[in-house]
């Protein structure tokens, strides 16, 4: 999940910032449905309405991670990369991995182990958060990627994007294979691909996505196609159908691109702009808090399974409401963390460290 801290920019597209918030809300919805136990419980009766409704909600939100990575490229395409921002992001990750791990070790003494300490201190290298591990690698590549996107001609850039989509999304879906080792999107390479697509969208736009109504219609169509194929399989269609409920599938990629186009061209009311301006930069921490492995296991696992037995008119609002509550609680927590970082001068410290490292490396 892009942290909105890797570039220095003069302006922020508030529609894109709003999408950053909504994408994180959608990620929480996915986690409540999956790790929360709703999908597993609903799968006991795959022909029931509850199963179909839960997977429709899952499909509507599934491209959220793609949106986040696309925003990385869209926001960073014409920005100036600072390693200080990378260091600040790492400081934020350490803040939560160490604090949450210490809190659980105090509350549940029996779970303490050397591996927990190792995981807390080296979250990127131990895969505590798959997205951050992949994004950590992407951050190291960003200066080169920004240089690449700045110097490619429009035709060269377009051909690169077409090749990426064809090789990493369309062909794997058609042949039901992962020949290029994209791990269904859980990888550095997929985030890099999305970064480049997002950068192209910022620089040149996608002609058939420029009209907001058409772009949103494409998002709906992609969701319905993906969900319809999933439901057909669940009901025993008897014919081989591709599983499009994956980050790398053409429908989920196009759905994410469509949402980015919709929100990038949106006129956001001033009141909502203020809320997005304050909350969007904190959204990455919402992920760090609720997806911490100990929170994931001890507080989230199976907690919402009982909702699978509720009527649809209760199930859907309950999941969305629970996701909104988690988002709000984590945002409040991170607002305190942001204040603490400002008080301690973390950003200035990271900038000084960057200057020291740059100076040391540039010495002959």
Describe the 3D structure.
With 364 residues, this protein is mainly alpha-helical. It has one domain. It has a two-stranded antiparallel ribbon with strand order 1-2. The two termini are 37 Å apart.
Considering the chains and any ligands shown, give keywords for the structure.
two-stranded antiparallel sheet, 364 residues
The residue ranges in which pLDDT falls below 50 over 5 or more consecutive positions are: 2-10
**How many distinct domains?**
1
Order of helices and strands: EHHHHEHHHHHHHHHHHHH
Helical proportion, percent range: over 70%
Layout of SSEs?
Layout: E1 7-8, H1 14-34, H2 38-42, H3 49-61, H4 64-76, E2 80-81, H5 83-107, H6 114-121, H7 123-126, H8 130-151, H9 154-175, H10 188-203, H11 212-234, H12 250-264, H13 270-279, H14 283-290, H15 293-300, H16 312-344, H17 346-362
Antiparallel strand pairs: 1-2
How would you summarize this macromolecular structure in one to three sentences?
This protein is mainly α. It has helices at 14-34, 38-42, 49-61, 64-76, 83-107, 114-121, 123-126, 130-151, 154-175, 188-203, 212-234, 250-264, 270-279, 283-290, 293-300, 312-344, 346-362; strands at 7-8, 80-81. It has 17 helices and two strands.
């Amino acid at each position: 999940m892009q942290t909105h801290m890797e570039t220095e920019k003069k302006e922020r597209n508030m529609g894109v910032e709003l999408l950053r918030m909504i994408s994180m809300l959608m990620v929480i919805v996915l986690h409540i449905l999956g790790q929360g136990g709703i999908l597993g419980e609903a799968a006991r009766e795959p022909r029931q309405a509850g199963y179909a409704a839960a997977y429709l909600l899952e499909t509507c939100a599934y491209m959220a991670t793609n949106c986040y990575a696309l925003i990385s490229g869209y926001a960073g395409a014409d920005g100036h990369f600072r390693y200080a921002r990378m260091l600040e992001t790492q400081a934020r990750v350490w803040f939560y991995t160490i604090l949450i791990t210490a809190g659980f070790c105090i509350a549940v003494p029996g779970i303490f182990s050397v591996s927990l300490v190792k995981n807390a201190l080296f979250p990127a290298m131990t895969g505590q958060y798959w997205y951050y591990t992949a994004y950590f690698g992407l951050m190291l590549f960003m200066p080169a990627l920004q240089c690449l996107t700045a110097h490619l001609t429009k035709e060269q850039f377009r051909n690169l994007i077409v090749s990426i989509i064809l090789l990493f999304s369309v062909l794997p879906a058609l042949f039901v294979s992962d020949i290029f080792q994209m791990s269904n999107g859980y990888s550095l390479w997929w985030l890099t691909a999305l970064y480049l697509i997002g950068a192209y969208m910022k620089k040149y736009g996608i002609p058939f996505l420029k009209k907001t109504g058409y772009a949103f219609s494409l998002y709906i169509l992609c969701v319905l196609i993906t969900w319809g194929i999933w439901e057909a399989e669940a009901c025993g269609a008897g014919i081989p159908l591709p599983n499009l409920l994956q980050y790398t599938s053409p429908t989920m990629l196009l759905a994410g691109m469509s949402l980015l186009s919709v929100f990038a061209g949106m006129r956001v009311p001033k009141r909502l702009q203020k809320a997005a301006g304050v909350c969007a930069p904190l959204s990455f921490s919402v992920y760090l808090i609720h997806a911490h492995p100990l929170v994931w296991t001890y507080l989230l696992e199976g907690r919402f399974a009982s909702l699978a037995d509720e009527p649809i008119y209760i199930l859907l609002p309950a999941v969305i409401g629970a996701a909104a509550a988690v988002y709000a609680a984590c945002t409040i927590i991170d607002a305190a963390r942001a204040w603490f970082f400002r008080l301690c001068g973390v950003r200035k410290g990271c900038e000084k460290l960057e200057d020291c490292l740059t100076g040391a490396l540039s010495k002959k």
